[in-house]
UniProtKB/TrEMBL annotation:
Membrane-crossing residue ranges in chain numbering: 28-45, 52-70, 98-122, 134-160, 172-193, 225-247, 281-298, 318-347, 404-426
Source taxon at top rank: Bacteria
Keywords per UniProt: Membrane, Transmembrane, Transmembrane helix
Name listed for the protein in its UniProt record: Na+/H+ antiporter NhaD/arsenite permease-like protein
UniProt xrefs under InterPro entries: MatC_N (IPR009827)
Species this protein is from: Pseudonocardia alni (Amycolata alni)
Dicarboxylate carrier MatC N-terminal domain residues: 1-147
Lineage, top ranks: Bacteria, Bacillati, Actinomycetota, Actinomycetes, Pseudonocardiales
Amino acid sequence: MAVQVITLVVFAAVFVIAEVRRSHIGIVMFAAAAGMGLLVAGLPLDDIVAGFPVDILVLLVGVTFFFGIAKSNGTIGRLVDRALVVVGDRTAALPLTFFLLTGVVSAMGSPLGGLVMAPIGMTVAHRRGMDPMLMALAIGTGLSAGGFAPTSLFGIVTWGTASAAGIALNPLTLFAVAIIANLVLLGASYLMFSARSRVPVTTGGGAGPEVPGDEQPPAREPFRVTHWITVVAMLGLVAAVVVLAVLGAEPDVGVLAFAFGAALTLIDPDSGRGALKEIDWSTVLLVGGIITYVGVLQEIGSVDLLGDLAASLTVPLLAALVVCAVCGLVSAFASTTGILAALVPLAIPLVQQGGIPGWALICALGVCSSIVDVSPFSTVGATLVATTVDEQERPRMTALLTRWGLSMVVIGPIALVGALVLPAMAV
């Protein structure tokens, strides 16, 4: 147990020290993972390095490169112009619109498929003078809500694992809980971030403020062949994600983005070269270092230790809170799908001991594991930071998403256990 405790303490200490020294947390965390793994846990170096999330690297680089091409050749700008004309002056409707669009895509098999909305949504937010944090949370909550559809991965893993353990859980109930919880969070994000605005960016298409006097806003740029090809590629990316999910294959959005990006860069090499600067390597290193250390924690049983401590609590309601908090905390730094599959079984002993309704606890646990995903140390949050248009806003986004994600580790369990488990126990 001493090894597990030491590595957990060092994990927390690295965050504090790196923040105080204003150092890159990902790089320091990767070094700490190697040190703890080799010197304290006695793990082989190959096992430690294997924890580096190559899949997330591929996702971040592939998505940002692909949409970097669409941005570089002007396609995204033209699409945003048209979208803003349709929305008109109803800027306040944009977050809800992207919540719904992201939720629909996420419900089609792969929650991470909803990330294809991130570059478009963040560009729209920039053009409309909207706080990027509001748009990021709209996309993040939409992804979380859609991910628990009976047709999507979060939902399938959660109610499937519960069913295998003999816990009755209607998948539509799980989906409804996820939608309501994330709509509440979207409403909170409106209250917190809608007041911060700036003058919209004017690039034509009616996206900016009214032009004084007799001057007319500049005409919208027309779509050319390259732009139509890029639009087809964007639709192809979304269609590929949906079709593969329907066929039962888990789509890798990063690999698909690389494939479509490679085709586009062969068609338009100049835009391909321009897209390289859109890749946010700082975010890749940040996520990579954090998740590598979390891999060490999982390898040596630190995560299991937290789960066992929760299950050993004699007060069922307190145990439910701790289990949900552990799931949320770990999920903020790792794969939500993996955490759901690994930690949902932690709730089974609490249900078997009696007193806690299984459906309520599993719903709370599942949603708690997902609402933290906007943390910049996870795939969703990292993508939202990487696709923030204004590079000067990215440090602020990282800080705010960190606070939001980690606050959900506490707020989520209290709210969901209080709203679901406690009333169900009283029935």
